[in-house]
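It would be a great kindness if you could assist me with a short task in structural biology. The matter concerns a single protein, recorded as an amino acid sequence and a row of C-alpha cells. Kindly check, if you would, that the fold set down in the C-alpha cells agrees with what the sequence suggests. Thank you for your consideration; the sequence and its C-alpha cells are set out here:
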Amino acid sequence: AGSGIEAGEGIKAGEGIKAGWGIKAGSGIKAGWGIKAGWGIKAGWGIKAGSGIEAGEGIKAGWGIKAGEGIKAGEGIEAGEGIKAGWGIKAGEGIEAGNDFGIYVGLRVRISKQKDYAIVIAKTKPKNIMTGEYREPT
C-alpha cells in the first residue's frame, strides 16, 4: 500500500506486507514473507513474518514478535511476550520483551556465523537477552 494499512482485526498475507506509512491491527499481523512499514508497526496480538520485519519508526506487539530473518526498527521494539529473530535485531532506541520473557537472536544462523549475525543492537542493553550478543550502535 502506498500509504498505511489498518485493520480492526488481524492482517494476514501469504507473501509480504508493505506500507509506505504504518501498519496497525487490532489483533495479529502475519506474513509468509516479510513485513515492512515506512512508519511504525503495531499489533494488539502478535507479529510474525517468514522473513524480516522492518519499520522506519517503532514495532509494538501485545504478544510476541517473531521473524524468520532480522528485525529492524528506527525507534524502539516492544513486545508483551518474547522476541525471536532468525538473524539479529537492531533498534534506534530500546528493545523490550514482556516481563519474564526472553529475546532470542541468531536462531537460524550457523554456529560459525553467530558472532557476525546473532547480534542485538540498541541504545541500552536489554535485560533479557537469552541468545546472541549485545552491541552498542556505531
